[in-house]
Design brief:
594 residues; ABC transporter transmembrane region fold; 6-stranded mixed beta sheet; 4-stranded antiparallel beta sheet; 21 helices; elongated
């Protein structure tokens, strides 16, 4: 019952998209009617031409008139078919474009919880592969379903005018085709749904292996990866064969029924000709119509099967579109932007002159609500302070950064910036206050210049100055085309350290009022890191800064060091104070120099 309801909802959803393009739909139906009428008018003319020849009284003028009309009807049918295909293509790909746009826009408003818990390959499969399958099925439906239905109805009308008795025989036998098609298509929907799911699983694996090719080769994981792929590919083969086998039964089944119908028509028509109830030309037209009448049943049965696959794929895309969005903050009037700045400062990326005080009161948070992580977190960061966050892996350092940026909302307590609860301000304005340099770099396909400026209108002189300050200018200058060098996704052939230098240069250009440095120099050599520290000190001057680090030698000059363990701050103070206390920080610090 649930599957039937889901399929019905999917169909209704598709119809709502179709209604957006009523003109294309109306043109398609109109052209389908013209095409069918023109095509079905030709057999009548051919029958009349045969009667002109068959009974010895050849009227050449009448015969030529009939043939000319037949030629004109054929030309009209061809033109209307071309127009119908154009309308169908416009309708189909406009709908798929809208669906893809909605799916892609949805990715920007999905909560991080969803993105973290769903493999990227599975999401890609829904937006790309499933949308393609949906387009193919929809196009076949528009191209053949309209013409098929029109052909059946109009052919039936012509046959009733010719011989009602034989037409009734055809009408009573033909519904068997629809019964066979419906029975098979009903059972193949679930099979195609399983097939789509396994295809998504396969895309996930391929995306994962390509994205981590170096790790795969480093640990000689090729054989295991191939075995995993073979296992998934085997299941996909089995599911596809099962779905295609059962769906392919539709065509032979309906063809058998149609052959029986044609035999009845031929036999009944022959008796009618012998008894004088029908001419030879009329029988020829009737047999042609009988063939035309039964042919759409084969096409419609194939379309119904393909539509089951399309509906299954559309359902997966709609599941993504219907996912719960990140809680909207459009109704929040407060924006963390200084009123002395331009009114469009948030959009232009201008830094607001906020003081930069941050306070956490009784903050509790966990990704899995059954597993506690951060409990009763309390900190008070004064404006311009440099705060270092240290601790063992998994203690909640990066999680704390996620909460400050409001990538996740806290479960309990409050986080305030300049006295304002961050849940009461817009995310966009909050995030404009922070500049982030993470251990994981983010670079897109484009030139070095594009990746540093990130779409902002900044003079090249400022860009080069920032690059020189973070010591990235020297390696950029050595590239083939300098700042115009095109790099691939995720930085292409650049080293991890070079990628990180580009990300630091990007932040140096924006100079926001607060900074977050999460292992910002983890991939940079010690000599270059010492030079960059000077640039960081200049950049952090007068700005509230949060520094996440494993190498404790890099945080000795911090105004406040927070030592975290199992989600709690167990120690806090300056470097000298914590060493004098001989606690957990003392053990961590000395363990790095043993």
């Amino acid at each position: 019952m649930e599957k039937k309801t889901a399929r019905k909802e999917t169909i209704n959803r598709i119809m709502s998209y179709i209604m957006r393009y009523k003109f294309c739909g109306a043109m398609s139906i109109l052209c389908a009617v013209i095409n069918v009428v023109s095509t079905l008018y030709v057999p009548i003319l051919i029958g009349r031409a045969i009667d002109c020849i068959a009974y010895g009284s050849l009227d050449r003028g009448r015969l030529m008139s009939i043939l000319v009309r037949a030629a004109l009807s054929t030309i009209i049918a061809a033109l209307s078919l071309w127009c119908m295909n154009e309308s169908n293509n416009k309708l189909t790909y406009s709908i798929v474009r809208d669906v893809r746009n909605e799916a892609f826009c949805k990715l920007h408003v999905l909560p991080f919880e969803y993105l973290d818990s769903h493999p990227a390959g599975g999401i890609l499969s829904r937006v790309i592969a499933d949308a393609d399958q949906f387009a193919d099925g929809l196009l076949m439906g528009f191209s053949q379903l309209f013409t098929g239905v029109m052909t059946i109805l109009i052919t039936l009308g012509f046959m009733l005018m010719m011989n009602p008795l034989i037409t009734l025989i055809v009408v009573f036998v033909t519904p068997l085709s629809l019964f066979v098609a419906r029975f098979i298509s009903k059972h193949t929907y679930d099979m195609f749904t399983v097939q789509s799911g396994i295809r998504g699983e396969q895309t996930e694996l391929i995306d994962e292996m390509i994205g981590n090719e170096k790790i795969v080769k480093t640990f000689s994981y090729e054989e295991k990866a191939v075995k995993r792929f073979d296992e998934i590919n085997g299941r996909l083969q089995s599911a596809s064969l099962k779905a295609l086998f059962f769906s392919s039964l539709t065509n032979p089944g309906t063809r058998f029924v149609n052959s029986v119908v044609y035999a009845f028509v031929a036999l009944s028509g022959a008796f009618a000709v012998v008894t004088g109830g029908m001419s030879v030309g009329l029988l020829t037209s009737f047999l042609s119509y009988a063939n035309q009448y039964t042919k759409p049943f084969n096409e419609i049965s194939g379309v119904l099967t393909e539509l089951q696959n399309a509906f299954a794929c559309a359902g997966r895309v709609f599941e993504l579109i219907d996912e719960n969005e990140e809680k909207s903050d459009a109704d929040l009037p407060v924006m963390m932007i200084d009123t002395s700045c331009d009114a469009n400062a948030a959009d232009k990326g201008h830094a607001a002159k906020n003081s930069g005080s941050v306070r956490c009161d009784g903050v509790c948070f966990s990704y899995d609500k059954e597993k506690k992580l951060i409990e009763d977190l309390n900190i008070d960061v004064k404006p311009g302070e440099h705060v270092a966050i240290v601790g063992p892996t998994g203690c909640g350092k990066t999680t704390m950064i996620n909460l400050l940026m409001r990538f996740y909302d806290i479960d309990k307590g409050s986080i305030t910036v300049d006295g304002r609860d961050i849940r009461r301000v817009t995310r966009k304005s909050l995030r404009h206050l922070y500049g982030m340099v993470l251990q994981d770099t983010w670079l897109r396909h484009g030139t070095i210049r594009d990746n540093i400026k990130m779409g902002r209108d900044i003079p090249d002189e400022e860009m080069i100055r920032a690059a020189k300050e973070v010591h990235s200018h020297s390696f950029i200058r050595r590239l083939k085309n300098g700042y115009d060098t095109v790099i691939g996704e995720e930085g292409g052939s650049l080293s991890q350290g070079q990628k990180q230098l580009l990300c630091i240069t990007r932040i140096m250009l924006s100079l926001p009022p607060m900074l977050i440095l999460d292992e910002a120099t983890s991939s940079i050599d010690t000599r270059t890191e010492m030079k960059i520290q000077d640039a960081f000190l200049k950049m952090m001057e007068g700005r509230t800064s949060f520094i996440v680090a494993h190498r404790l030698s890099t945080v000795r000059n911090a105004d406040l060091i927070l030592v975290m363990k199992t989600g709690n701050i167990i120690e806090q103070g300056t470097h000298d104070e914590l060493l004098a206390g001989r606690g957990f920080y003392y053990e961590l610090y000395n363990s790095q120099f043993v």
